[in-house]
TrEMBL record, chain B:
GO terms for cellular component: aminoacyl-tRNA synthetase multienzyme complex; cytoplasm; nucleus. Residues 46-172 form the GST C-terminal domain. Gene3D superfamilies: 1.20.1050.10, 3.40.30.90. This is Eukaryotic translation elongation factor 1 epsilon-1-like. GO terms for biological process: positive regulation of DNA damage response, signal transduction by p53 class mediator. Pfam families: Arc1p_N_like (PF21972). The gene is LOC109469727. It comes from Branchiostoma belcheri (Amphioxus).
């Protein structure tokens, strides 16, 4: 199977780790970012069809293990629909452009807290072995936690996340995926990819009284 | 106008023959939560719809796809629904989405090709408010989306509480096509 991606794309980690664990041969084809404006990576299936969701690709490459595990479903949905819209712009601001953005951090704070709580004293987020939920969340957080010399105090206080992240980082499937995707350069190799990836759309705040729906349009930014 | 996500989950449960679970929403972005009993809850539309299909007493599990490829495609469209469809409220985002879907659906009857699946069901509900707002000319412009939408709304049991939208079965204005 082929994975089309730009170098240093953290979402490509999701697919590469999964194929490392499942022992699937994954051919990585580099895409020129100046000629492709959409999301990457894209997984080409044996049938010729393409999967543009890195989370769906991760699960597929794992051999669709735990597909009936509803808790894994929940975490994958949470990562793509709730965490990413706030995590991605934050990472772009602080890793990509080298500046800290307090407003973005404030928006992300409750999300990291939610994850931290779920990870307290747990080796894996669901069950007793690595699932797609661990791979997807670990890859999402790689630009923030992947360089242990650069983790800021705001991030180290989530000790549940830190311990879980570091434990997974010692596993061979994760280590060799970092080497493949970042060409052994680590987080610094992600910068160009982070800046080129389109930002996820933000959730829409729903005004609670249903009768006021006509005003809902004016509240969006 | 748009029907709440609680209504959607209830109509999905109804379509799939599921018991009348309690449905609430979480936070100001209104993430649906399904209360499955014994104090257990499931959060998120993609998660809930998969659960309802899998546990469906009326054979809804076949809507989840029978091959790993189908299952992966369904998963990506469920993600597309919650991350793109529900968030493309600005006109330029909605247009970009419709354009993308229109070209995807060019050679397909349903999202997976020839088989009706959970992806169609969830995309139909998500696109209903979007299609409602389209003018006659815009429906013609996104004619693959329109054809698919019309097909799905006529699928037995799908429409439920949602009003039926009118589409022309033939193309009157061929000059708007490419």
């Amino acid at each position: 199977m082929k994975l089309f991606t730009d170098p240093g794309n953290p979402h490509a980690l999701k697919a590469v780790i999964a194929s490392n664990i499942a022992g699937t041969v994954l051919q990585i084809q580099e895409v020129d970012r100046t000629r492709w404006t959409g999301n990457l990576p894209i997984l080409e299936l044996p049938s010729g069809r393409a999967i543009f969701s890195a989370n769906a690709a991760c699960r597929y490459l794992l051999g669709n293990k735990n597909t009936d595990d509803i808790t894994v479903d929940e975490w994958l949905e949470w990562e793509s629909s709730q965490l990413q819209p706030f995590l991605a712009p934050y990472i772009v601001a602080c890793v990509g452009q080298g500046k800290k953005d307090n407003a973005l951090f404030a928006a992300m704070f409750p999300l990291l807290e939610h994850l931290d709580k779920a990870l307290k004293d747990r080796q894996y987020i669901v069950g007793t072995s690595v699932t797609a939920a661990d791979i997807v969340l670990w890859s999402a957080l790689f630009p923030l936690y992947g360089d242990s010399t650069k983790i800021t105090d705001e991030l180290t206080r989530y000790s549940g996340i830190v311990d879980w992240f570091q434990n997974l980082s010692t596993q061979e499937a994760f280590k060799s995926a970092i080497a493949t995707v970042t060409k052994s350069k680590g987080v610094s190799a992600c910068k160009a990819s982070l800046l080129a990836q389109p930002l996820p759309l933000k959730p829409v705040i729903q005004s609670s009284p249903t009768k006021a729906q006509s005003e809902a349009g004016s509240t969006s930014s | 106008m748009a029907v709440g996500v609680e209504e959607e989950v209830k109509s999905l449960a109804n379509f799939l023959g599921s018991p009348a679970y309690k449905v609430t929403t979480q936070g100001e972005i209104k993430v649906p939560q399904l209360h499955t009993g014994n104090g257990k809850t499931l959060t998120g539309l993609a998660t809930i719809s998969k659960f309802l299909a899998r546990s469906s007493p009326s054979g809804g599990a076949k809507l989840l796809g029978t091959t790993p490829e189908d299952q992966a495609e369904i998963a990506q469209w469920l993600e597309y629904r919650v991350t793109i469809v529900d968030r493309s409220v600005e006109k330029k985002d909605a247009q970009a989405m419709l354009k993308e879907l229109n070209s995807y659906l060019l050679d397909k009857v349903y999202f997976l090709g020839f088989h009706f699946s959970l992806a169609d069901l969830i995309m139909y509900h998500g696109l209903h408010p979007v299609m409602c707002r389209l003018s006659f000319f815009e429906k013609q412009q996104y004619q693959n989306v329109s054809r698919w939408f019309d097909q799905v709304q006529h699928y037995p049991g799908v429409q439920q509480h949602l009003p039926q939208l009118v589409f022309l079965r033939n193309t009157l204005y061929t000059s708007s096509d490419h």
